[in-house]
Amino acid sequence: MDTFLLFLLVGFLAQAVDGALGMAYGLTSNTVLLAFGVPPAAASASVHAAEVFTTAASGGSHIYHRNVTWSLWLPLTVAGVLGGILGAYVLTGIDGDVIKPFILVYLAVMGVWILLRSLKHREPRRIRGYWGAPLGLIGGFMDAIGGGGWGPTATTALVGAGKDPRRAIGTVNAAEFFVTVAISATFVWALVTGHWEQAGALRDYASAVGGLIVGGLVAAPFAGWIAKTVPMPILSRMVGGLILVLAAWQGLQLAGVVA
What are 212-243's pLDDT values in tens digits? Predict the structure, then answer.
């Protein structure tokens, strides 16, 4: 029960921030799981299993609050699904001990990137829909590999290119459900076909996944409202700092400094 309550809190806080920033649920949840010693593929699969539920609620909230640019949503979603399938297939075929240091670097870079983004301000401008295809492909791949990278890749790129933050967050969140379902389905396929040899570890983290789902579902319906009301620079610095702290903890574990 302690594990369930801990990850319920993690899921709630991560999804609350994700609703405001269009990122952080996957990154935060995955980083915490890795810090607890969960293998990378199992961590990513666990996070995406939870996100199937939370992204549906979050995306629906953004649609309700009219935060979605549909001309950008379609190419972003289709390419994101393809990138996610490819990333999940690659991750399940690699030994967790080999890939973990690379994911650690990736998470650290994302934490720094989020902090840097919080210090900049640009006037919003229109982004043409075709840019969603390459962005979705990269974002989907990084999301599957890192257990959370869809928002940091897609949202920060759109906002950095001048997209209205509210519309960028809403569009990315609305697409995320389909990307998450595709990635989760690929993990299931890898499990059934035997491509994923370390899949048995998933049974050990059922309580964590349950906590992430319940906590995320409680916070997700408020996503659209949060995106319109909460100051983004403050939350950006909070999540960026959290990711860096957790990534640093994992680095110390890999170096053998802490158990």
Answer: 999 989 988 887 777 777 776 776 777 678 77
- pTM of the full structure: 0.76
Q: How far is CA 95 from CA 34, 58, 196, in A?
A: 14, 33, 10
Helices 165-193 and 2-21: angle between axes, nearest 10 degrees: 140
Residue 2 to residue 94: CA distance in whole angstroms: 31
What is the rounded CA–CA span in Å between residue 226 and residue 220? 10
Burial of 120 (0-12, 13-18, 19+ CB in 10 A): exposed
Which long-range contacts link 159-164 to residues 24+ away (Cβ below 8 Å)? Answer: 159/117, 159/122, 160/117, 160/122, 161/125, 161/127, 161/131, 162/122, 162/123, 162/124, 162/125, 162/127, 163/69, 163/124, 163/125, 163/126, 163/127, 164/124
Kindly give, in sequence order, each residue whose CB lies less than 8 Å from that of residue 180, ignoring residues fewer than 6 positions away. Answer: 48, 51, 52, 55, 84, 150
Tokens of 57: 């609620």
CA distance 205 to 211: 10
Positive or negative torsion for Cα 136, 138, 142, 144: positive
Rounded CA-CA distance 39/213 in Å is: 19
| Angle between helix 232-254 and helix 2-21 axes, rounded to 10 deg | 130
Query: Residue 238, CB half-sphere, CA atoms under 13 Å: how many?
Result: 16
Q: How far apart are CA 179 and CA 181, in angstroms?
A: 6
Token digits of residue 117: 């983004």
Angle at 136 between CA 132 and CA 137, to 5 degrees: 125
- Identify whether the C-beta of residue 218 lies closer than 8 Å to the C-beta of residue 161: no
Q: How does pLDDT run across 190-204, given as a tens digit for each residue?
A: 877 776 665 665 667
